[in-house]
Design brief:
Layout: H1 2-6, H2 10-53, H3 60-87, H4 92-130, H5 132-137, H6 139-161, H7 167-183, H8 185-200, E1 208-211, E2 214-221, E3 225-230, E4 235-239, H9 240-244, E5 249-250, E6 258-266, H10 272-285, E7 296-302, E8 307-315, H11 321-338
Antiparallel strand pairs: 1-2, 1-5, 2-3, 3-4, 6-8, 7-8
Helix pairs in contact: 2-3, 3-4, 4-6, 10-11
Length: about 350
């Protein structure tokens, strides 16, 4: 500033000072106006915004309003200060540095506001839609990815403001991402499959699933693999990409009730109706078997040595199927014996024929 004043003629000093004072006054008015605007916006958010949020059933908008109101007021004040600094006839270097710093501050505040709003949205989605387990595993990673995206976006906007060539940066990021993707394609495939499993939710932690010949309870759903505890207390670790491309049975969906089946064969001379009645009554006498839906017995087919019957029953939880089936089989065998219903076993009759052609001649 001194260097500028030094080269001004004496008769030019007053107009310059007058111009500088006028710009300083305008800048002060801008700062004051934006300060009043921030106070007005604060009052509107406090009264009108809170009243509008009270009409909604969720408290999500209340939490977002509470977290962004403070940075929003600061943003308005910094925006006024930025405009005021740009109007002052400062030295080129001083003006560029001051306005640049204020621009960076404004972008940082905008990033904070976006992050806080997004954080509340992710928390609400994780708690109400995704579930507790998904919130624990997936939401932290999603939040980190969103944070990285916001920071990179703010950095690109800042570099663009200072006339830096961002094309080379974007190109370098693209090439680097391509190289990482090619080098870790299997890991990325499992991670993407992990996202799919967590969002689509074909099974949850604690569900019992059958995958091919393997049956077990889901212990953990990670980003790379899923851990399944087998019925023989072994731990099966399956890559998520394999789970996404395989057919599986979820025994705990749509509810935890389990359906059991008892197959038995009775003799052809036995009374089928009486046998079916005994089977249904036996199932009803077992405590674990549900009365609704009620057990049902069916005459399935004619076997080689028996009439094949099947009993279907339901239990409150699929883990009780084998125990209930054991009790039904034990009681059913006794009642069949008491009612004269026999359970035949396969028999074979072997007939030896004498070969008369090769018999010795007398």
């Amino acid at each position: 500033m001194d260097s500028i004043l030094y080269y001004l003629a004496p008769d030019e000093m007053d107009p310059f000072l007058l111009f500088w004072g006028k710009q300083a006054l305008i800048s002060a008015v801008i700062i004051g106006a934006f300060y009043l605007l921030s106070r007005l916006a604060q009052q509107l958010l406090t009264k009108v915004g809170t009243r509008l949020c009270s009409f909604t059933e969720t408290d999500l908008d209340d939490r977002i309003l509470e977290r962004v109101s403070g940075p929003a007021m600061l943003l308005v004040n910094c925006a006024g200060l930025y405009l005021a600094i740009r109007r002052l006839p400062l030295h080129d270097r001083i003006g560029i540095i001051a306005s640049g710093l204020l621009f960076v501050v404004n972008i940082s505040i905008l990033t904070i506001i976006a992050y806080r709003a997004l954080d509340e949205l992710l928390k609400a989605y994780g708690a109400r839609v995704a579930g507790a387990e998904m919130s624990r595993q997936l939401m932290p990673l999603v939040e980190k990815l969103c944070t990285i995206f916001l920071v990179v976006t703010a950095l690109i906007i800042t570099l663009k403001h200072f006339n830096y060539d961002i094309l080379s940066l974007v190109t370098a990021l693209g090439v680097g991402s391509l190289a990482i993707g090619l080098a870790a394609k299997d890991t990325l495939a499992n991670m993407i499959s992990g996202f799919t499993l967590m969002i689509d939710r074909p099974f949850r932690i604690g569900d019992r699933i059958t995958l091919g010949a393997q049956t077990g309870d889901v212990m953990d759903i990670g980003l790379r693999s899923t851990k399944i505890k087998g019925l023989d207390n072994t731990l099966l670790i399956i890559p998520n990409s394999e789970l996404c491309n395989s057919n599986l049975i979820n025994m705990a969906f749509p509810d935890v009730r389990g359906k059991g089946r008892v197959n038995v064969g009775i003799g052809y001379e036995c009374d089928v109706a009486r046998a079916k009645e005994i089977m249904v009554q036996t199932a009803l006498d077992v405590a674990e078997v549900l009365k609704d839906p009620a057990p049902e017995a069916f005459f399935v087919n004619f076997g080689d040595s028996a009439l094949n019957l099947s009993l279907f029953f339901w239990v409150p939880e699929y883990t009780q199927v084998f125990g209930a089936q054991d009790k039904i089989n034990s009681v059913l065998l006794k009642r069949f014996q008491e009612n004269g219903i026999n359970i035949p076993y396969p028999t074979r009759t072997v007939i030896y024929e004498k070969d008369t052609n090769n018999a010795p001649q007398d």
